[in-house]
Specification:
Elements: E1 6-7, E2 10-11, H1 21-28, E3 33-58, E4 62-80, H2 83-93
Antiparallel strand pairs: 1-2, 3-4
Length: about 100
Protein backbone atom coordinates (compact mmCIF):
# COMPACT_ATOMS: atom_id res chain seq x y z
CA UNK A 1 0.00 0.00 0.00
CA UNK A 2 1.57 3.23 -1.11
CA UNK A 3 -0.42 6.33 -0.21
CA UNK A 4 0.09 9.90 -1.25
CA UNK A 5 1.82 10.87 2.00
CA UNK A 6 3.84 7.68 2.57
CA UNK A 7 7.56 7.55 1.98
CA UNK A 8 9.52 4.41 2.92
CA UNK A 9 6.55 3.03 4.86
CA UNK A 10 6.14 6.09 7.11
CA UNK A 11 3.17 8.43 6.75
CA UNK A 12 4.44 12.02 6.50
CA UNK A 13 1.31 14.09 6.42
CA UNK A 14 2.04 15.78 9.76
CA UNK A 15 5.10 16.88 11.74
CA UNK A 16 7.57 14.45 13.27
CA UNK A 17 9.76 15.35 16.26
CA UNK A 18 13.46 15.82 15.43
CA UNK A 19 15.50 12.62 15.27
CA UNK A 20 12.49 10.29 15.11
CA UNK A 21 12.13 9.89 11.34
CA UNK A 22 15.22 7.67 10.77
CA UNK A 23 14.05 5.36 13.56
CA UNK A 24 10.56 5.12 12.06
CA UNK A 25 12.02 4.36 8.63
CA UNK A 26 14.13 1.60 10.18
CA UNK A 27 11.06 0.22 11.95
CA UNK A 28 9.12 0.25 8.67
CA UNK A 29 11.80 -2.04 7.18
CA UNK A 30 10.57 -4.90 9.36
CA UNK A 31 8.71 -7.38 7.13
CA UNK A 32 5.87 -7.66 9.67
CA UNK A 33 5.12 -3.89 9.62
CA UNK A 34 2.43 -2.72 7.21
CA UNK A 35 2.60 0.99 8.11
CA UNK A 36 4.02 3.45 10.63
CA UNK A 37 1.77 6.42 11.37
CA UNK A 38 3.09 9.29 13.52
CA UNK A 39 0.31 10.83 15.62
CA UNK A 40 -0.22 13.92 17.67
CA UNK A 41 2.57 15.84 19.36
CA UNK A 42 2.15 17.04 22.92
CA UNK A 43 4.17 18.86 25.56
CA UNK A 44 5.23 17.07 28.74
CA UNK A 45 6.35 18.41 32.09
CA UNK A 46 9.56 16.46 32.51
CA UNK A 47 12.26 16.63 29.87
CA UNK A 48 14.46 13.84 28.54
CA UNK A 49 17.89 14.68 27.16
CA UNK A 50 17.79 11.97 24.47
CA UNK A 51 15.17 10.41 22.24
CA UNK A 52 13.36 7.44 23.81
CA UNK A 53 10.61 5.12 22.63
CA UNK A 54 8.15 3.65 25.11
CA UNK A 55 6.00 0.69 24.20
CA UNK A 56 2.33 1.51 24.64
CA UNK A 57 -0.95 -0.26 24.42
CA UNK A 58 -2.04 -2.73 21.78
CA UNK A 59 -4.57 -1.52 19.24
CA UNK A 60 -6.87 -3.40 16.90
CA UNK A 61 -4.37 -3.02 14.05
CA UNK A 62 -1.09 -3.33 16.00
CA UNK A 63 0.28 -1.23 18.85
CA UNK A 64 1.19 2.28 19.92
CA UNK A 65 4.59 3.73 20.79
CA UNK A 66 5.32 7.00 22.54
CA UNK A 67 8.43 8.85 21.40
CA UNK A 68 9.86 11.44 23.80
CA UNK A 69 12.62 13.98 23.40
CA UNK A 70 13.08 17.01 25.57
CA UNK A 71 9.63 18.14 26.70
CA UNK A 72 7.97 16.85 23.51
CA UNK A 73 6.10 13.56 23.16
CA UNK A 74 4.61 12.03 20.01
CA UNK A 75 2.32 9.05 19.55
CA UNK A 76 3.34 6.55 16.86
CA UNK A 77 0.95 3.87 15.63
CA UNK A 78 2.46 0.70 14.16
CA UNK A 79 0.18 -1.33 11.88
CA UNK A 80 1.04 -5.04 11.94
CA UNK A 81 -0.52 -8.48 12.06
CA UNK A 82 2.38 -9.92 14.12
CA UNK A 83 3.02 -7.58 17.07
CA UNK A 84 5.39 -9.98 18.84
CA UNK A 85 7.68 -10.14 15.80
CA UNK A 86 7.78 -6.34 15.54
CA UNK A 87 8.47 -5.96 19.27
CA UNK A 88 11.36 -8.40 18.90
CA UNK A 89 12.65 -6.38 15.95
CA UNK A 90 12.41 -3.20 18.04
CA UNK A 91 14.30 -4.72 20.95
CA UNK A 92 17.01 -6.15 18.71
CA UNK A 93 17.52 -3.53 15.99
CA UNK A 94 16.51 -0.28 17.71
CA UNK A 95 17.41 -1.20 21.28
CA UNK A 96 19.31 2.00 22.13
CA UNK A 97 16.10 4.02 21.94
CA UNK A 98 13.59 1.54 23.41
CA UNK A 99 12.83 1.93 27.09
Amino acid sequence: MNGRHRVRGVKREHSIIPGLLPILEQLAQSPAVSAVIPGRISVTRAGLPTLQLRLGTQTITGFKLTARRGTTAQEVFVVTTDAESVLGFLRQEIKEFVE
